Amino acid sequence: MDQNKTLLKVTDLTKHYDAECALKDVSFEVKRGEILGIVGANGSGKSTLLNILYGHPVIKNTGGYMGEFYIEGVKIKQNEPYDVMKLGIGMVHQEFALFNELTVAENIKLCKEHTRSITGLNRYQELSWIDDEKNRQSAEETLRTLGISLDTSSKIESLSTTMKQFVELARALNREDLKLLILDEPTAMLNDVDSKILMGLIDKVAKKGISVIFVSHRLEEVLGICDSVMVLRDGNCVNYQKSEMCTLKGLANDMVGAQIKRSEKNGRLIDKEVIMKFDAYKVAYPGEVLEELTLEVYKNEIIGITSLSGHGKLAVGKGLMDFYPTGGRLWFKGENITELSCRDRFRKGISVLCEDRKEVGLLLEHSIKDNIGFTANQVFHQYKKYPKLKILSPLNQKALAHSVDSYKSFLDIKFQSMKQPVKQLSGGNQQKVALARCLATDPEVLIISEPTRGIDIAAKEKLLDYLRIINEKNNVTLIIASSELEELQRLCDRIVVLSEGKCQAVLPPTANSGEFGLALSGIGGAINND
Amino acid sequence: MERRYKVPLLFLFLIVGGIFLSGLSVNFVLNGVINRFIRNGIMVLALIVPIKAGMGLNFSVTVGAMCAQVGYIMALALGLTSFSGSALALVGSLVLAVIVGWLIGLALNRVRGKEMIATMIIGLLANGIYQLIFLTCVGDIIPVRNTSIILSRGIGVRNTVDLKVFRGLLDNLGVVTLFGIRLPLVMIAIVICFGCCLYYLLNTPFGRKIKCVGDSIEKSQQVGIFADKIRLKSMIVSTVIAAVGHFVYLQNIGMLNVYTGHLKHEIFASAALMAGGATIKDATVRQGFVGLVLFHALFIVSPQAGQALFNNPALGEYFRSFVAYGTIAFALIINSEDKKRADIARKPIVEYSDVNM
Amino acid sequence: MIKKHLYVLKSPQYVIGLFLLVLVIVARNIGMDLATLFNDSLIKFSMNGIFVLSLLPMLNSGMGMNFGMPVGVVAGLIGLCIAVNYNIVGVSGIIVSMVLGCLVAVFFGIVYGRILLGVSGREEIAGTFIGYSFIPIMNFFWTLAPFSNRQMLYPIGGSGLRPRIGLNAYFGKVIDNSLYLSIGDIGLPMGMLLVYVLIGGFLIFFYRTSIGKAMLAVGENPNFAKASGMDCDRLKKISVCFSLALGAIGICVYAQSFGFIELYDAPMTIAFPAVSALLIGGATANKGTVLQGIVGTYLFQSIYLLSVPIANELLLPEVSEIMRTIIANGIILYALLMSHQRRNLYGASL
User: For the domain bounded by B3-336, which CATH number is listed?
Assistant: First the structure.
């Protein structure tokens, strides 16, 4: 086998989703038996790239892609989804595509079952009786080459997470014509021991001449096994070189962003009066699990929480709203609020604005007026015309209109009529309406996730200013969870960096990007608590 | 999985009680059950594939039944009889069933999550259209050779139409009488044969894909299965089986109620399947047959039992209605609780520190 | 479009409106008396209108179309039967029926609501079958319950209530006849219209109150409601009780107008026409307003009224019933197909 022959060549791959550009001019090459590592956070275009290579229907349904890719010199046309699978590309997904009710063997052989054919015609293979015995043997053989012994007739739901990962791998490997294996964060769910085993298996696979694309955020692993590394950020390829020439710090730097201006924020003095305390706080937010957060939040400070996508920063807000099961304890002004309902926590003075404002933060069909007054009216019984009627009281429209006007001028919300449905506003203005709703409840602590997501640049600046004003003038303590490190550096007094759901470091905004990068990748575990 | 057995056992208990109360002989009940087994056996099977594909109870099997009726009327309209007539009726039904099943499948792919209410409404709508066509168009806009099936006013098909000309082809083959129970072996064999064919289908790669789509549409798409296409094919299969099932039913009864003959079959078939221990998420051929026997046995004994208990046979009738609708309501309610429990148990609390191997 | 229009016409209304226009023209051409038809239409309109309005609480709080309406209707029937049983006549009779009906409806609603909460996502189909299986149970009740009023029971030899109980001696047409205004050929049943307007008005008021707005929020976006600290389950249960209570009031008004209490299997056929009337008025499978209910009821009832005599004239009497079935179910299917949000299953991980 010619080790130097190019298996996969990608040139200028570009993909837009409506207005957003997910991938821009990405080019790379993978030779036979070579292991290419792709590094980058979600939102960096990594998932889009994989979807294109793999032929996921979402690509076709959202307008296809630009650029070309070649497999063994043959240009691939933008065909029906899944056509590429037939060319020998196998994928191990980040979220296992395993069916709980089927057995291990059935999952491994899915869509490539052996059948007993009566007529001997391949055309009716779909409708031939499945040969369970042959399937079992084939599955067992694949597992053997991976060095795993497992009862192939056991159902998936009874396996441990590690085993499921291996079965997922076995499924991709169980084919005669495998040329390229794509692995999407394969070690994310595994502990160190199992990760090493998996790495060994991947090495074995590559030695057989199968090319591998290895996507991971664990920089040490990537450097350990890959021949070349490509770093994606914001849809662009920012670095692509042989792994011998990469350093850990360099990669971390690339992932996070080039020279971040030294922050101009003057370190201000915050009274260390603890207003809120997280004690081994856990949130089981699927896909964004918070494993453990122990943190004291000081009154009137602005504290940021950041992590790579899926590493837990967005979980705090969701946990406080009781959307997902939580563990550990929460203290507010010295009082244990862990057992309280979401509504009671709001009444204590905590307000939460989550990142998915359209799904959870706003009533799109309702008017601006109704949205702003909602929580204040429902939870704090404000704006009631006849308070004696309690829940049967209509709203005091005049008072509400007055409030809306004041928020309109304070936050500079642009709308034509406060009776307009919120869905007609731009993203930035929608966010302001959601923010106004939270402010209308006069909170002491505001937890806000991804405050500037989906907002154009001009509006972003203003929004950050408003947040600062809210903090300084209205004495609202802010906890901001965001993936935009630059913004956090400008606003926050301290920044908590999470990796894999655990706090890696609490850095001052003036720390350099390398430090942030390493903390985000989970390297250098010393926790500095100010 | 004890729930698989709870419902059938409850039915068995009620049947035994019913037999005692009603004073009917076991032979009488068994004969009735065998008769209904033959008539309704295949129709029950039609429900299994959509359940496996995650689309719940297919209340549009009544549309498949309509196809069979159209087939027969067509054959009668052309004045054909006996074997050639039957063959044409069957072929006509199947062709129509495929087309109609395809249309229903298209509609259902637009209403993921609400398939059951959609199939119910589709069934009612199709019923209206069917009745309208046969009441106003046939005889007038659609000319008919054999005018004996037309109403006296000249337009529209008669209310009941005799199928004697097609009848009895297979009915009286291989009839054996054992201890006073009449067993038409060939017909029973045909029904069981269909069951076997369905079982076979469910164990092919196609059948496995159906099971995957029923489990999770998202996962299926990740693995390379075209979920929409599989769902579409499932509906076609279901409608075709329903057409065949009703065809056999009509063949057996020998008479066709043009405007009402296809009604209520979806209710009885669904109730029978649920009675056998199936759920709206999973059903097997065995559950279909067992449920059919149990359901119809209870149906047969109810009126007499009502008479014995309350001196009022009407109460037995009410009980029958309740059994039919109630079994389905129960299956709908309980299944959601099972699903919730399973979802909570399966919630992916991701374990970063998972040590077991 | 900046201002939220009070009422927006969409394609179904154009189709139905056109159909109605055609029927009116045909009716005139075959010489039918439009004045009588109009009078009848107003009465039928108020008779059936409350059923349509009763769908709104559940629809707007995210519980879908209440195909389980028979449960509420039965509650009303129980109220009516008790009132008749104790010989309560006149206006007090109808009021007692309504009050009792509401009480029973609330009781049913608590149980029915709990069940529906457990089947979320499938409320409509579950409701249909719960309603259908409740009716045979009630048939037992009508047959066995100890009612004493001889006029209600089967003549000697049968047991249980009659399927149809005449109300002329009690409170038949009490509301119909009250405040009746005649203007030339046209008669306006002001009493009926007043009751209808009162209920519609109450619903409009309700949706301006705190709790009404909370229900709307739960219906539009349950995640938002939860995130705002609302108790979604409690609000949904209240909406169920509310819907059933309105259904009970609806059957009381209907029965007094019709002149008979219809028991046994009669409630089975009330839900579907009511749902399609609401949809004809422009409601979607997720939200409806009072105005849509009113417009839809009027359109639907008018088609009903006009189609029967026209079909008779054209010598095809059964066709009117079938046409109504097709229109009703067609509209419901259209609403299901159009407004069901197709989950973007393809847009998994972006």
Answer: 1.10.3470
